[in-house]
Amino acid sequence: MRLARFLAICSLTPARACTNIIVSRGASSDGSTIMAYNADDANTYGSLVHFPAADYEPGAMREVWDWDDAIYLGSIPEAPHTFNVVGNVNEHGLMIGESTFGGVHQLDGHGTGAILDYGSLMWITLQRARTAREAISTMDSLVQTYGYASDGESFTIADGTEAWLLEMIGKGKERGAVWVAMRVPDGFIGGTANQARIRTFPLDEPEQCLYSADIVSFAQRAGLYPAGAAAADFSFSDTFDPLTFSGARHGESRVWSVFQRATGGALDEYAAYARGEELWHRMPLFVRVARPLAVEEVMELMRTHAEGTWFDATDTAGEDVGAGAGHSPYRMRPLVWRWGGEAYVNERTVSTQQTAWAAVSQSRGWLPPPIRALLWWAPDDSGTAVRTPLYGGARAIPAAYGDVVGQVPGAGQPYGVGGDALHMDLRSAFWVYNLVAHMAYGERYAEAMPLIAAKVGEVQRRLLGAAAATDAAAARLLAADAHSAAAYDAITRFGVQTGQALVEEWRGFWMFLFARFRDGVTLGAPALPLCSRRGNYSGCACKLLPSVREVGYGSRWRARIAAETAARTRKANFRAEGRKVQLMAAKGRAGEAEVEEVGLADAHAGGGGGGAYASAAVLSFAAGVVCTLLVGWAGGKYSRHVARRRADADERKFHLVLDK
């Protein structure tokens, strides 16, 4: 019964199991606030939202559609004027992200007649508020007026001055929601990952804490907090989202991983808590960073898979067969599975393959509003993605990142490319980024991921430099004219052209990876250059012949395969055939023989290694055979060679299948 209950709880995963980081001005290297937001949802098409600024006549209404379920919830009056919104930032430097925590089921707002789900709440607020405090007030007003149609959410909210964490949950069948918001202290960072984190909070410090007026009384009325208990002892998390093993292991462990890196390893004492063991020993809500973080360092935090920690699933210590031959941190879902009457878990890391988009944004309070918010955005897995820069004041977005339909009605772009969550379009950034990411999944992780990481770093540094130059140019124009059309055109053009070019570059990068890692081997640069002119054929080849490395498996996997499949896979007369292989290698007749010879050495040494490179001599020989046919020299020599190869055919048959 306990196992069944545990699995039932763990199966109630939120539709968007996201990870957020929020960085105060004093914790960033340039004095900006920074927000990182991975929107993790396997069935969402990762397209970029754009709501242009607009004016509305009195009586105009706005349709509200549930972001998760894509169903119509109702309509609310439009504001007279709405601001420009790109992704999760607006033209005034306001930024909002989220992570679902769910909470107690009786307060779920789905199907209650409420109109505002959490996704619409974010985007409507971005269209109506200029600052973080305005956003908090706007969100409260909206849900109290129109009802909250979701379950529990953590929102990260920041402007150019302040950074906040707001946690909200509905009232079930009652209209409205209860919430509390805590300001991130200067020099500190916060994080949230599918577990409510705010516990007790100050009741009379509005500079640091804001909350709904009935937060305690509602909890008492709902039977979730004792009627006679003190308001000062009230804990939002313990009341509305009691911590469970899964909340710690699959949620708080991500926050711990980020905090541990940002503090230089200062959170060792909370490792057992993050493992789901010491649930009573809760982590701090915010932590002071060891040193201020640059925006690219926050991007890097969002690319992590808990490497180097107890949660590291890459099999670096040789203790997790689930990593496969490629030593991958990724696992097939679900997160919780069972075998032999026991429940087991896969680790849930910051970077995950189910991400719809990954955003890191900055709000620079010293810059003019149109360029105050700089959004670094990418679709798909944050661990393999390079982020493109877009400004909050941009009047258009790259077509490759757009979507004709949109995340919700009104957020799409008529110029967006085709494709959706089930139909591929190679013009779409979402699909191109997926192609690159999938090259790193499974058995290719150990080889492909370092190449992807290096490429991401190279391109990201280039884009950071380009954005800095655009900042400076646009700031000069806006200093002369706050409404400079040239400035708006410049930042829009920069975002569109950069994004489009990046998708082209990323498509080419996928083609490079695919060509390199195909057909069970790894291909590299050819041993011989192409012949450049007729008549000079020394040390060159008439066509491209890449080097080929047979990847094979490490010693642990060889041992498992040998133990589990010996009846089918063990070769008879292994040593006798090995001598023939070595003889053939000495005669220089077969590249396959050299591969097998190395395999023999591994076997005699007790394992290790994983295949061998074909030698330059073998490739030179193969290229020479082809070229003799084309240019007609040494015909007799070629005939004798063919006859000799035919005589050896029976002995070599099993070797040929190694490469064929």
Automatic annotation (TrEMBL):
Pfam families: Peptidase_C69 (PF03577)
Keyword Membrane listed: yes
Signal peptide range: 1-17
Gene Ontology biological process terms in this record: proteolysis
An annotated Gene Ontology molecular function: cysteine-type exopeptidase activity
Taxonomic superkingdom: Eukaryota
Protein name: Membrane dipeptidase
Parts of the chain that traverse the membrane: 612-636
Keyword Transferase: no
Family: Belongs to the peptidase C69 family. Secernin subfamily.
UniProtKB keywords: Membrane, Signal, Transmembrane, Transmembrane helix
Family annotation (InterPro entries): Peptidase_C69 (IPR005322)
